[in-house]
Design goal:
The protein contains two helices and nine strands. Strand 6 and strand 7 form a beta hairpin.
């Protein structure tokens, strides 16, 4: 079963009521990505540079860092109690879907993300082929 991803990308409103938008290629302060509103909510925590899912009080996440024009997907963490439920795959799909929407070039340094990309070639166009890694 493949989750349908949506993203709340409406610009934030300033106190004066005017719209604020993030500079090109940058995310607004917080974006929520929801694969299925009745199931898991994945939040893009921009200040922490990670995509997060809180399940039963436990936090699973996929972290990234910006290196020049690329976004390096560098670590995926799912607490042992939550493993085997497909959370890492949903985090990877959410991160890659957001990367596509924001026109990010990515570099998968996380072994899980690299494996996910091999299984999901529909995201292969996001990988920065000139990165040499």
């Amino acid at each position: 079963m493949r989750a349908s991803l949506t993203s709340s990308l409406a610009p934030a409103r300033a106190a004066s009521g005017s719209a604020r938008t993030a500079p090109a290629g940058q995310a607004p302060p917080s974006v929520t990505v929801t694969p299925d509103p009745t199931q898991l909510v994945i939040r893009h925590n921009v200040p922490a540079q990670r995509f997060e899912a809180l399940v039963g009080g436990l936090l699973a996440w996929l972290g990234y860092a910006r290196e020049g024009p690329r976004y390096v997907l560098d670590h995926t963490w799912v607490p042992e109690e939550l493993r085997g439920r497909g959370l890492a795959a949903q985090l990877a799909a959410a991160a890659l879907t957001e990367a596509r929407q924001r026109h990010w070039r990515i570099l998968p340094r996380c072994s899980y993300v690299a494996s996910f990309l091999r299984k999901h070639p529909e995201f292969s166009d996001l990988v920065d082929a000139g990165a040499g890694e």
